[in-house]
TrEMBL record:
This is 3-oxo-tetronate 4-phosphate decarboxylase. Keywords: Carbohydrate metabolism, Lyase, Metal-binding, Zinc. Pfam families: Aldolase_II. InterPro entries: Aldolase_class_II_sugar_metab, Aldolase_II/adducin_N, Aldolase_II/adducin_N_sf, OtnC. One of its GO terms (biological process) is pentose catabolic process. Its cofactor is Zn(2+). It comes from Testudinibacter aquarius. GO terms for cellular component: cytosol. Residues 8-187 form the Class II aldolase/adducin N-terminal domain. Belongs to the aldolase class II family. AraD/FucA subfamily.
Amino acid sequence: MSEQQQKIDLVNLARSLFERGYSVGGAGNISLRLSGNRFLVTPTGSSLGRLKAEDLSVLDSDGNLLEGKKPSKESVFHLAMYQRNPACNAIVHLHSTYLTALSCLDNLDPSNAINAFTPYYVMRVGKLPVIPYYRPGSPEIARELSERALDGKAFLLANHGVVVCGSDLFDAVDNTEELEETAKLMFLLKGQNVRYLTDDEVNDLKNRGK
Ligand SMILES: O=C(O)[C@@H](O)C(=O)COP(=O)(O)O
Ligand SMILES: [Zn+2]
């Protein structure tokens, strides 16, 4: 796929997320791995609904700006995750409503904020480790995500939002949408007698995915 097409796909998918309410204002950022150890990142302060292909930031692996506008203040954590996990080729960070609400709850299990109650959550994401709260843009988020980048595809940033990886941009967006839907169901089911999937059921889904 040409680099221009990758930029167009990013602009279109970001707009689609924005138009469907997954992101508001200037919140969130998206990136993907380009060829030659370079990375495409959304510019800082930009609305995901109004990106322009020519404005997207192109960075080298040290974070030097090669093309486009000043990158997201979270580009440090995006680059740290790419460096640590070669299977991660795209990253979506959102403040989507239900996942962000979940991120604000006290006493979440740091190893997994959502226990599986649907197969698709297991097949797409599986578990949701929690990164403690740090100021947005702080190097501690990058350090924690880098340390845990091989622990899963998605991470909840406490009191902030979510970070989701994919094998490509379409996969990362699909994983994010599934995760947001799962968090929404979790709130809808609050106080109900939920039947969680058993360990055997979860393992069966994971084994079929291999
Ligand atoms: O929450 C924040 O401030 C950032 O994590 C964010 O979502 C938007 O920052 P930029 O990508 O620098 O606009
Ligand atoms: Zn954020």
